[in-house]
Predict the structure.
Amino acid sequence: MSELIELMNLSKTYDSKFLAVNNVNLKLPKGKIIGLLGPNGSGKTTIIKMIAGVLQPTEGSILVNGNPVGVESKAKVAYLPDRTYLLGGETIDKVIKFFADFYEDFSVEKAYEMLKTLDIDPSRKIKTLSKGTKEKVQLILVMSRQADLYILDEPIAGVDPAARDFILRTIINNYNPEASVLISTHLITDVEHVLDEVIFMRYGHLVLYTAVDNIREKYGKSVDAYFREVFSC
Amino acid sequence: MAWELDSDRPIYTQLVERIQVQIISGYYPPGGKLPSVRDLAAVAAVNPNTMQKAFAELEREGLIVTQRTNGRTVTEDETLLKGIRMQMAREKVDVFVQTLKELGFSQQEILSLIQDVIEGEGKNE
């Protein structure tokens, strides 16, 4: 079985009237780096939260590696939320220890190695870190796990271009044919070369799911340019 | 340094061309070892699957050879290397001649222009 994620008739309604995700059917394979793209409010974060198991679908179902979303799937899914969740009073050292206790697949060694590369002092408290550094630390925590699925919700929006390159390189270096990475972002140009496939969302619908080079071959333009055309206002 | 890539063409085609040039120019010499897919993908800052696809294409062309124990190496077939070198030069010249023809240059003018440029280069060196 090579499907890693299977979304079946997936819908999510907020306040019983706003349809954030509308009947999405999608199968995502292993060993791919996949971009989840769409304008603001197209349902990207809602889909991600349902796969990560922090939101319940209103209708439909999700399988991760053949299992319904739950304790078992969460142990194999590393999720980077779109906002911070770390407690400010703790040091990075302490947070790493906590992650190592909590996740069986967490590599302390890998985490410290990445902190060193980015020149972040692990004895600092979370609340003393800048917004960008905090985001880097969170990404390091996620990428230090040996998961089947990495879900990164806007991982590069808040960091400088050099750190963006580091993040993308980390994703490439971490590549594993058994695992997939799902990245939501607005910054398509920055991630385009790193992606295998892209998913376009609009108003909660799935608009397109195809390979990056398919778009370039078929339309003779980058995914970014094609995105601007499809979603032009 | 990430590789500069055009935005209007498939990424994998551009990786193939880039590595072809590196092989023809001797950056990777005949029989020399190539980096792993993963390492080269990291250097180029591209998706490893796309790099894998580029390597597969180069293998199909015979430019690179997979050794069971020694990873991938550049072919030692000099005839093949010369052929591809010629073909690449030919494509460049075709484009160049076409462009000058569109500018209204005659064959004779193109030839003497090339002569001038080459002689000029010689003087500068």
Q: What stands out?
A: Chain B touches chain A at residues 2, 5, 7-12, 38, 41-42, 44-50 (CB under 8 Å). Chain B has a mean pLDDT of 91. Chain B has five helices and two strands.
